[in-house]
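Reviewers of the previous submission asked for a worked example of the structure-prediction workflow described in the proposal, so we include one complete record here. The input consisted solely of the amino acid sequence. No template or homolog information was supplied to the procedure at any stage.
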Amino acid sequence: MSHDQNFKNLILDYPRESVQFFSSPEAAQVDQSARIIPIREEQLKERLGDRFRELDVPLLVEWPDGRRDALLFVFEEETDPRRFSVHRLAHYCLDLAELLSTNRVVPVVIFLHPGAYPTQLTLGGDHQRYLEFRYLACPLSQTTARDYFDSPNLVARLNLPNMAYTPDDKIEVYAQAVRGLLELEPNPERRIKYLDFIDIYAQLDDHERVIYRQRYRREAEVMSGFAERFIQQGRQEGRQEEGAAVLLQLLTLKFGSPSDPVCELVHRADPDTLRRWSARVITAERLDEVFADGGRASGPGRGD
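From that input alone, the workflow returned the following structure tokens.
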């Protein structure tokens, strides 16, 4: 999955937290009374045609009591700042402003990697400027991770691996992101989904995972416990594919990256077997103990 799709999912799943973190200068008045509504893609496609940009995320903030006019936030994730086009963003924001009949638009660009980028667009002649366009920039790589270790904002905690930190802090950054996920997200499916988000951007190697499990045993055990319950739910609802994904994630956390034979074994297993194997991950000292009744898979795990 692409980075822009990852961030689109994040913003749609946590719109209020995204507004507060990525666009904090404009978020002060977006309190709990405000209603945040993603603009439907079907509406945008129909009205904007080829100009529609699928991976941008417009959020309309409304105050039901009418004390403030609605405010439109337009989020764009840009992995490589060199590819960012301020002309394209300005064009899109003008399209949305016309479509929704509003001048209250806040463009926000999330820059994932470091690099230079234009901060504004100015059009004019010899005598005056006729158009000035600016946007809110959120350069994650220039944001200090340690400042957000205890943040109550889940979007900030999930993005700790994308922020600035020293190499010595890498495992603690990962741990604080996982801890934030456990503390702030009660939904098991979301936990699994965004543990994957953290893993993608933290990129721990197998040795670092071993150190993490040693230092943060409680978090690893809690993750194993709720994942086992999630697999049980998946069994009841016939969601074998999700159960396999959860078990592979648990194996990675405890033993390192699974080998191809182990992945194949897990994907072939039925839901009852997945549930049984998942429960064993909590107490197993060796990978073979997890699969004691499932046939021995060669090359059990690269982290052993």
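Strands lie at 35-38, 57-62, 71-78, 105-111, 120-124, 129-134, 136-139. We consider this example representative of the routine output the project will generate in years two and three.
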